[in-house]
Amino acid sequence: MTDQPQAPKAVVLLSGGLDSATVLAIARREGYDCHALSFSYGQRHAAELENAARVARAMNVTDHRIANIDLRLFGGSALTDDIEVPKDNDIEAMGTDIPVTYVPARNTIFLSYALAFAEVIGATDIFIGVNALDYSGYPDCRPDYIQAFERMANLATRMGVDGNALRINTPLISMTKAQIIRRGTELGVDYGLTLSCYDPDTQARACGHCDACLLRLKGFEDAGLTDPAAYQ
Questions:
Q1: E-strand stretches of the chain
Q2: Is residue 213 part of a domain?
Q3: pLDDT per position as a tens digit, 71-95
Q4: Structural domain of residue 139, as residue ranges?
Q5: Whole-prediction pTM value?
Q6: Model confidence over 171-215: pLDDT tens digits?
Q7: Sheet holding 167-169, edge to edge
Q8: Helix (H) or strand (E) holding 114
Q9: Which of these, 227, 126, 125, 124, lies nearest to 180 by C-alpha position?
Q10: Residue 230 domain-assigned?
Q11: What share of the chain is helix, strand, coil (3-state, %, to 5)?
């Protein structure tokens, strides 16, 4: 009897939101042994970590870790500082300017942690749910940024130097929010377990008015589906 080949390992950045849950489902469908990584970084919507844990359990990930880093040390964002979260913005105007919900260097920090995790467990793939279409103008969600980080990762790691090229996978990069939701629904994602809101209440109910909520609600509407998440 021959041994069954082991599934390749992947680190999946899991925030607890709609996009990251979809990316996790895609990585699982592609046959990866998924190791999820979430962050407690001083975000005002830290309730999302409970959602990340629920998603990880529902999808039977091999390992789910939460890294504790406090970006409130620097602030500079409505998510990590005493700055009001914008509400009821014009969806069509989103992406024209970098909004105050941008957390300085957040994806660079997150991907660096994921890179270290990947090296330790021998994973050559990292999955992240960045999107260049239905996004709020964040500079670290663009394809050029992801490509640049991947090049850096392969220059700066033992894996890369030894010829085990590391890939940053962005399966949602060119999808609309509606397409993301349809794909996740096909894969059986329970979006009722996710939280996308930047400013949820103490019961972890979404506000329905921040940029993340507006994009999410429009995505469900465009997909012809009803959002199962709890709203205030």
A1: 9-13, 33-40, 63-68, 125-127, 167-169
A2: yes
A3: 999 999 999 999 999 999 888 777 6
A4: 9-223
A5: 0.95
A6: 999 999 999 999 999 999 999 999 999 999 999 999 999 999 999
A7: 63-68, 33-40, 9-13, 125-127, 167-169
A8: helix 106-121
A9: 227
A10: no
A11: 40, 10, 50
